[in-house]
């Protein structure tokens, strides 16, 4: 069995198995190992199937293109290639991709870029599991843009 290391993980679920029961396939991208591990753990606890992880925007785009996850959680501030770059490239691959940006950056410039690239939601760090799950549920129900702050 593979060791429990969420960094740069790739499982590659075949397309015909992408939706088993209520599971949704997820790609999680964050350069912070602790945040990445927490996101993976929380999502799996809520029965999402994490099929890949990455720690920068270039890896995110490559994994998105290969795995075609149902939902991508994407950090904004990362080395090598940031989340804004990754979101723009994912939009070119699939204009209808479901992407949730996760960030500490509260600047108006970043918010404008995220909105221009049509992210489905933004969750500001620190976050909790309820905000994470509620955001996904709102996306599933047809909401197109959600912003979540932690109280």
From TrEMBL:
Entry superkingdom: Archaea
Positions in coiled-coil regions: none
SMART domains: REC (SM00448)
GO biological process: phosphorelay signal transduction system
InterPro entries per UniProt: CheY-like_superfamily, Sig_transdc_resp-reg_receiver, ST_Response_Regulator
Any one Pfam family match given in the protein's UniProt record, by short name: Response_reg
Limits of the Response regulatory domain: 25-140
Protein name: Response regulator receiver protein
Protein species of origin: Nitrosotalea sinensis
Upper classification of the organism: Archaea, Nitrososphaerota, Nitrososphaeria, Nitrosotaleales, Nitrosotaleaceae
């Amino acid at each position: 069995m593979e060791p429990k290391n969420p960094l740069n993980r790739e499982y590659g679920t075949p397309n015909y198995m992408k939706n088993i029961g209520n599971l949704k396939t997820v790609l999680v991208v964050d350069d912070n190992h602790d945040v990445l591990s927490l996101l993976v753990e929380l999502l799996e606890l809520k029965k999402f199937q994490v099929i890949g992880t990455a720690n920068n925007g270039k890896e995110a785009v490559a994994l998105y293109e290969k795995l075609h996850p149902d939902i991508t959680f994407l950090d904004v501030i990362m080395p090598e290639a940031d989340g804004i770059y990754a979101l723009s490239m994912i939009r070119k691959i699939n204009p209808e991709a479901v992407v949730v940006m996760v960030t500490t950056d509260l600047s108006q410039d970043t918010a404008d870029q995220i909105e221009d690239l049509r992210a489905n939601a933004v969750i500001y760090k620190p976050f909790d599991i309820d905000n994470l799950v509620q955001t996904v549920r709102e996306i599933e129900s047809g909401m197109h843009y959600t912003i979540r702050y932690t109280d």
